[in-house]
Specification:
Blueprint (H helix, E strand, L loop, with lengths): L2 E5 L4 H12 L4 E5 L18 E3 L6 H8 L4 E4 L6 H6 L1 H21 L4 E7 L22 H20 L2 E7 L2 E2 L12 H10 L5 E3 L5 E2 L2 E2 H11 L8 E5 L5 E2 H12 L6 E3 L14 H7 L7 H17 L3
Helix pairs in contact: 1-7, 2-4, 4-5, 6-8
The protein binds nicotinamide-adenine-dinucleotide.
Nicotinamide-adenine-dinucleotide binds next to α1, α4 and β5.
Length: 316
C-alpha cells in the first residue's frame, strides 16, 4: 500500500491535508511533527487511521527511516511566522532551512517519488505590480521569507541535480478551522475570529489598508494533492492563492456584518517585515496543476467562524 508522509501534519494546514489524504483513500498516512506549534488534538478523530511520529525534521537519523520508500512527502513542517523569524532568527533558520535540507536529503536517499513543499508568498516581498506572478524576481523582506525561499531553491536543485521530484507551492495567507488564534504569532484571521466571538475590538498593525489574497484551507489542500500528481510540475514553483485581494479593514468589516455587531478596530504600529499588498496570479497553477479554488472569502469566513464558535465555546 502506498505511503504518504506529511511533515507538520499536526499543524493547521497539515492536519487538513491529512484529512484530505484520508478522504481520497490514499493509503497509509504518516505524520512527522515535533508539536512545536502543532497539536495532536488537531488530528483527534483521525488519530487511529494514521501513524504519528513526534520527530524533529532537523534530525536526519530520525526522519530518514520514516520517509524511506514513501510515494509522496508533503513538507509542511516549519516555524511559519514573520515576527518570530525576527525575534528568533537562529531557531527559525535551523528549522526552516536546515530542517528542509535534511528532509530533502532523506527523501532523496530514501527513494521518495515526489516531495511537495509548502513555500510562501512572502518570497515576493513588495512588488510594484499585482497580481504577483512566479516569473517575478523574489524580494524577501524578513528572515522568514528568506528561509522559505531557500527551501524552494533547495527543492528545485534537488530535482535538477539530484533527481528527486519536487514541486513548491507558494501558499498565500491561508485561513480556516484549526488555525491557532492564541499565539502572538497567530495569523490575522484567527485573531479576528477570536476577537469577534469574544466581542472585542482587534488591534490591526498599521492602517489596515494592507491587502492579502486570503485562501481557504480546503482550496490549499486540494491544490497540494493535485501537485503530488501533476506530470509537468517538477522542479517548479507555483502560486497557491485564491486570486483575489482584500484589505484587513475590509475583512474586519465583513466579519462584523456576518456576525451583526459593531466593534471598531484599534490600530497599532506597522510590523517590520510585513508586505504591503499580496495577490496571486493563479494562471500557472490553473494550467499545470488544475487549480480550481471553490471558496469565496465570505463563504470561507462563514465556515471558519462556525468552527471557532463551536471550539472556543468548548464542550457544552
Ligand atoms: N498559514 C499560512 O498562511 C501559510 C502561508 C504560507 C506558507 N505557509 C507554510 O505552510 C506550512 C504549514 O503552516 P501552518 O500555517 O499550518 O502552521 P503550523 O504552525 O500550524 O504548522 C507547522 C507545523 O510544523 C511543526 N514543526 C515545527 N517545527 C518542527 C520541527 N523542527 N520538526 C517537526 N515538526 C515541526 C509544528 O509543530 C506544526 O505542527 C509551513 O511550512 C508554512 O511556512 C503557511
Amino acid at each position: 500500500m502506498p505511503r504518504y508522509v506529511v511533515t507538520g501534519g499536526a499543524g493547521f494546514i497539515g492536519s487538513a491535508l491529512v484529512r484530505g489524504l484520508l478522504a481520497e483513500g490514499a493509503g497509509r498516512v504518516v505524520v512527522i511533527d515535533n508539536l512545536l506549534t502543532g497539536k495532536e488534538e488537531n488530528l483527534a478523530e483521525v488519530r487511529e487511521q494514521i501513524e504519528f511520529h513526534p520527530a524533529d525534521i532537523r534530525c536526519y537519523e530520525k526522519i530518514a527511516p520514516l520517509v524511506q520508500g514513501a510515494e509522496v512527502v508533503f513538507h509542511l513542517a516549519a516555524i511559519p511566522s514573520v515576527p518570530r523569524s525576527i525575534s528568533e532568527p537562529v531557531l527559525t533558520h535551523e528549522v526552516n532551512v536546515n530542517g528542509t535540507f535534511h528532509l530533502l536529503r532523506a527523501c532523496r536517499d530514501g527513494g521518495v517519488r515526489r516531495v511537495v513543499y509548502a513555500a510562501s508568498s512572502s518570497a515576493y516581498g513588495d512588488t510594484e505590480v499585482l497580481p504577483k506572478v512566479e516569473t517575478m524576481a523574489p524580494r524577501p523582506l524578513s528572515p522568514y521569507a528568506v528561509q522559505k525561499l531557500l527551501g524552494e531553491y533547495y527543492a528545485s536543485v534537488f530535482y535538477h541535480c539530484l533527481g528527486l521530484e519536487t514541486v513548491s507551492l507558494r501558499y498565500f495567507n491561508v485561513y480556516g478551522p484549526r488555525q491557532d488564534p492564541n499565539s502572538p504569532y497567530s495569523g490575522v484571521i484567527s485573531v479576528f475570529m477570536k476577537a469577534l466571538l469574544e466581542r472585542r475590538s482587534p488591534t490591526i498593525f498599521g492602517d489596515g489598508e494592507q491587502s492579502r489574497d486570503f485562501t481557504y484551507v480546503e482550496d490549499v489542500v486540494a491544490l497540494t494533492l493535485k501537485a503530488a500528481r501533476a506530470p509537468a510540475a517538477c522542479g517548479k514553483v507555483y502560486n497557491a492563492g485564491n486570486g483575489g485581494r482584500y484589505t484587513l479593514n475590509q475583512v474586519w468589516e465583513l466579519l462584523q456584518r456576518i456576525e451583526g455587531v459593531r466593534l471598531p478596530a484599534r490600530y497599532g504600529p506597522p510590523r517590520p517585515g510585513d508586505v504591503r499588498h499580496s495577490q496571486a496570479d493563479t494562471r500557472a497553477a490553473v494550467r499545470d496543476l488544475g487549480h480550481a479554488p471553490r471558496f469565496s472569502l465570505e463563504e470561507g469566513l462563514r465556515r471558519t467562524l462556525e468552527w471557532y464558535r463551536q471550539t472556543l465555546a468548548g464542550p457544552a
